[in-house]
């Protein structure tokens, strides 16, 4: 696809069995604001983001990634994308219509190559947001999501062909091949990445903080509160962003980050980074070593919602 209708990442939605603990995690510990708090569905906004919400949590018997939502420039872009996807044989869940979730808008949903529900929308009402102050250690916005795939090469090709994502960089192991594809839809180094894993699942979701000091304060606050730190603090090579990863109450991995690299579209050339070089994972050398335990946790549980659209 020569033209990408995707402008940015809006939000990701989770279904979890331990609903109240997940809601408490985001609202009391992670630094998000509950904008609609219900008995079975809660929307969370980031105070610095114009998006109506960056995470939605739904109560369910089975844990799953309900959907990933992306923005489009206008109604015409939404309609053209729906037509192009349908013509290419992609399974549309619904035709473009008025969006019924918080903020409204105009959009539609479809299944990606592995059966995840993807939403693309435009004209969503802008939320009143504010500047995050110095030393305020809460997320400014949602940065990116990473998806596990047993066939990442096919997933990369699918997102390039159908949604116009571009490859920014690759992580490679000399013996096992490519492990990570960092994909962009705008000037950010990546809004999505595809990681090699044993099954389709959410690998992690990442939230941008104001700066280095706020990122370190937020990381320290989470560690002092007793949340299990998987990995970090450190600084990745691909994307040049900082990282600290934590496990949420339902076993999903959440990341604090900052200073994600921006890309000059006309001059950027993707690099291949060797994961056997320690600087690839952590330029600073401050994080704990990546090991089998961290890898297993980031594999997450197999997603039980593939090819099943969420009820909301």
TrEMBL record:
Pfam families associated with the record: Glyoxalase (PF00903)
InterPro entries: Glyas_Bleomycin-R_OHBP_Dase, Glyas_Fos-R_dOase_dom, GlyoxalaseI/FosfomycinResist, VOC_core
Residues in VOC domain copies: 8-123, 141-259
Gene3D superfamilies assigned to the protein according to its UniProt record, in alphabetical order: 2,3-Dihydroxybiphenyl 1,2-Dioxygenase, domain 1
Name used for this protein in its record: Oxidoreductase
Originating species: Corynebacterium hylobatis
Upper classification of the organism: Bacteria, Bacillati, Actinomycetota, Actinomycetes, Mycobacteriales
């Amino acid at each position: 696809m020569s033209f990408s209708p995707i402008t940015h990442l809006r939000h990701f939605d989770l279904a979890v069995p331990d609903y109240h603990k997940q809601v408490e995690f985001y609202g009391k510990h992670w630094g998000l604001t509950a904008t609609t708090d219900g008995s079975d569905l809660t929307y969370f906004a980031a105070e610095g983001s114009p998006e109506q919400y960056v995470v939605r949590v739904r109560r369910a018997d089975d844990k799953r990634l309900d959907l990933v939502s992306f923005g489009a420039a206008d109604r015409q872009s939404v309609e053209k994308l729906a037509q192009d996807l349908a013509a290419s044989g992609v399974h549309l869940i619904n035709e473009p219509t008025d969006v019924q979730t918080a903020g409204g808008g105009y959009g539609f949903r479809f299944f990606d190559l592995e059966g995840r529900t993807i939403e693309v929308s435009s004209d969503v009402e802008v939320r009143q947001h504010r500047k995050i102050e110095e030393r305020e250690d809460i997320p400014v916005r949602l940065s990116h999501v990473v998806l596990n795939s047993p066939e990442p090469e096919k997933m990369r090709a699918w997102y390039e062909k159908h949604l116009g994502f571009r490859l920014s960089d690759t992580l490679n192991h000399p013996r096992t091949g490519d492990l990570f594809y960092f994909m962009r839809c705008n000037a950010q180094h990546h809004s999505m990445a595809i990681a090699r894993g044993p099954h389709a699942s959410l690998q992690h979701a990442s939230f941008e903080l104001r700066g280095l000091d706020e990122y370190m304060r937020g990381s320290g606050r989470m560690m002092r509160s007793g949340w299990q730190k998987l990995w970090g603090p450190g600084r990745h090579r691909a994307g040049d962003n900082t990282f600290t990863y934590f496990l949420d109450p339902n076993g999903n991995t959440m990341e604090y980050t900052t200073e994600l690299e921006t890309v000059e579209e006309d001059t950027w050339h993707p690099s291949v980074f060797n994961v056997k070089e320690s600087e690839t994972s952590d330029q600073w050398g401050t994080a704990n070593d990546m090991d089998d335990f961290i890898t297993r946790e980031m594999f997450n549980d197999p997603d039980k919602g593939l090819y099943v659209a969420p009820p909301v």
